[in-house]
Amino acid sequence: MKSIFKQRVMTGLFISAGLVGMAAQAQTIDPAVQEVMKKSFREQGIAKLDRIEQDEFQRLCSDEAFYASKEGQQKAIALQEKALKEIKPPSDGKYLGDWKAGEAIAQSGRGFTWTDSLKTVNGGGCYNCHQITKEEISFGTIGPSLLGYGKMRGNSQPIIEYTWNRINNSKAYNACSNMPRMAHFNLLTEQQMKDVMALLLDPASPVNQ
Amino acid sequence: MKHAWIAGLLLAASSGLAMAQPAASDMLAEYRKMLADGNPSELYEAEGEELWQKPAGPKKASLEKCDLGLGPGVVKGASAQLPRYFEDTKRVQDLESRLMTCMETLQGIPQAEVVNGTFGKGVRKDLEAIVAYIVTQSKGMKISVPASHTKEKEMVALGEKIFYLQGGPMDFSCASCHAVDNKRIRMQDLPNLTKQKGAAEGWGSWPAYRVSSGTFWTMQRRLNDCYRQQRMPYPIYGSDATIALSIFMANKADGGEVQTPGLKR
Asked: Considering the entire predicted model, what is its pTM?
């Protein structure tokens, strides 16, 4: 995971360095902030220091004023389009897994902290921010309610593909979406994402009762 | 004793996936009512007061001459006006980094011993108890961190940038959870730290006793666990990023009420 993360960050740095050279209204990065961050953190367990190196989305979305500017909005659209193209459909063409497994993934907020290990089975942490089923009353409100998700939208191919894309990389539709990019950083496996898909879209799932 | 079974009750309430809705919310209400009864951080506070007065370290001196910003030995109201700039260290310091300075200069205990230590252990555990004592002496007072000194202004500005700084595999920043009103993670209400009201609620009620872990948490420990959950690397104890975030929150909270030590889930 570390090497993938690093590689993406490096690519991001290279591209944005090029843009800074060309565009007049590019985002300004305060080196003092970077300096303080470097001195203020150390690695612990699986949480290495490359996690404070930002990629292009992170850099854009850390700067509300620039994001709101015309240049920032253009940058957001360019990043979204690029991210959308990078999303891979399921390798076997099947989008829906097992909703019961999906519910367990939605419940679990484990993974990627310095108290987790590489062997930790990661969760989606979905309930942290979303209402999903009627049965679970301990849900967060940062994201929209997903209760009745499939019942309201149906199971058409565009809906299936949109939902798949949104789970894979929510920022492909909204550059500064609060939702983690599940596939981009391998937060969930392909099978886990299929199971979450089933939780949302399977007519038998408690989400759609 | 009581907090042990409150914790059990909370655990039952928060893990009750199969539990019927009314029963679970009743339990949470009951739990909140019990929280109002008494705060186990009194035990830490008593220990901290003793440690403050007791000669310790290679220099066998107490901390009673420690200047927390209101003059040597003044404890009353001290935490209400922190973080602030200190002329002798030429740094903006929060309560914990300031106590490290005092332990080093007065008692001869190297700061590295605290910085490289662990929460709840050794010298850092002593420091945490002293924090409990100090913050109780400001309870009910007004938060007063106007950041009028140039160095304080600089730290507030730095803290604001760090507050919005995204990173890690989940793209989180402090703002991911704490920049909008009336949001929660699971059942946990999230203060909006970008506004005075939310900042006063958040900053004003930490340090606190945490029922779920049965321990007293300083602000450094609170921030440490926030960063753990953000999936970021480990914030170094007393580092400038943590102090910058602290003065950013405290400055936003200016004029609010100090409710420390708080009592939390």
From this structure: 0.88
